Amino acid sequence: MSRPTTPTTTRRTRPAGGAIALRLLAAVLALLGAVLAGAGAARAHEATMAVITLREIGAGRYIGQWTMPPADPRLQPIFPPHCRWTPPELDCSARGLVGQLSFMGLGSKQSVATIRVVPREGPLEAYTVSVANPTATAARDPGTDLAVWRELAETYVNLGIDHILRGIDHLLFVLGLIWLVKGGWRLVKTITAFTVGHSLSLAAATFGWVGVPERPLNAAIALSIVFLGVEIVKLQRGEPGLTARYPWSVAFAFGLLHGLGFATALTALGIPQATLPIALLFFNVGVEIGQLAFVMLVLALLWAHRQAQAMLPRWGAAVPAYAIGGLASYWFLLRI
Q1: Which residues of the chain are modeled with pLDDT < 50?
Q2: Cβ–Cβ < 8 Å for 287, 160
Q3: Are 289 and 161 in contact (CB under 8 A)?
Q4: Helix axes 214-236, 319-335, angle to 10 degrees
Q5: The whole model's pTM is what?
Q6: SS (H, E, C) 277-321
Q7: What is the pLDDT of residue 23?
Q8: In whole angstroms, what is the distance from residue 208 CA to residue 185 CA?
Q9: Distance (Å, whole) CA 230 – CA 225
Q10: How does 1-40 read in b/e, with b if 16+ C-beta sit within 10 Å?
């Protein structure tokens, strides 16, 4: 006598949380490997910018010299049509250097370039272009030309965004703050304190009130990230450190340090005093836009991770802290 067969039901299987976590961890490690592969080139604040200085030697005549040579030798300035450029001489006749300025060869190797004009009489002038804003207008009196001020705003906002998104060390520090403080108003206040700190020191350094040598400064910035990595490990061991207890104070203090690093992007351009306040204002706006976009991206990824209910293995919880601290330690050794 045969036994009755029990009907079988087909169940859709979902990958186990551990499998999802391992895939996520593999993706993170692959990304970290890519970052480490390019870390040798990731020297923060040594931005891909170039500066050519034109010194007036006669009416409408200039001698040009690269005071910050371009990383890409194909980079060449483009002057108004009435000007004749035969390096190192520029002849703009009696009309002078008036009209649109740009550069040929702007790209990944050279994202920002500046033309500094040193007249025989009057204040120095500087015109900065970038990949996002590839032209600038030279005018005899830029202070009364609203179109020129609008171009300055577009240029320096884009320069600020470009600088923060290329400043991997700044972004890594912000990532460490997010990892330590988690979400909520506490994180908002911490990021705000960091913003206030680097805004103050950025202004002070740009106006020449304070000055720090670039290489020791970059090494100190790398150490600040190592400090956050150690703080994350201590928190995971149940030993809240200084940042976990006083996040706003630590973020503000290190913000002052990072702001000095931001200032190198502006001081290297030799912006004239007349246009420095507006350049500083819009550069800072650009930095904040880039920083806010990064924070929102990280929070979105953390939210997606929670929605996927992917749990990392216990040993995997320390990977982000050691990745942040390890990469920053490598930068510190590289910079000293």
Answers
A1: 1-2, 4-22, 24-46
A2: yes
A3: yes
A4: 160
A5: 0.67
A6: HHHHHHHHHHHHHHHHHHHHHHHHHHHHHHHCCCCCCHHHHHHHH
A7: 52
A8: 35
A9: 9
A10: eeeeeeeeeeeeeeeeeeebbbebbeeeeeebeeeeeeee
Give bridge partners of residue 54 from the DSSP assignment: 64, 117
- How many other CB atoms are found less than 10 A from the CB of residue 326? 14
Q: Read off φ and ψ for residue 99, nearest 5 degrees.
A: 135, -165
Q: Which residues pair with 84 in a beta bridge?
A: 91
pLDDT at 197: 94
Q: In the prediction, which pLDDT does 18 show?
A: 47
Residues 265 and 47: beta-carbon distance below 8 Å: yes
Please give the Cα distance from 126 to 122 (Å, whole number): 13
Distance of CA 72 to the CA centre of its chain: 20
Please count the other Cβ atoms lying within 10 Å of the Cβ belonging to residue 266: 23
79 within 8 A of 141, measured Cβ to Cβ: no
Q: How far apart are the first and last CA of the chain?
A: 85
Residue 204 zone, left/alpha/beta (φ > 0; ψ -120 to 50; rest): alpha
Query: How far does CA 252 lie from the centroid of its chain?
Result: 18
The pLDDT of residue 184 is: 81
Report whether 127 contacts 101 (CB < 8 A).
Answer: yes
pLDDT value of residue 8: 44
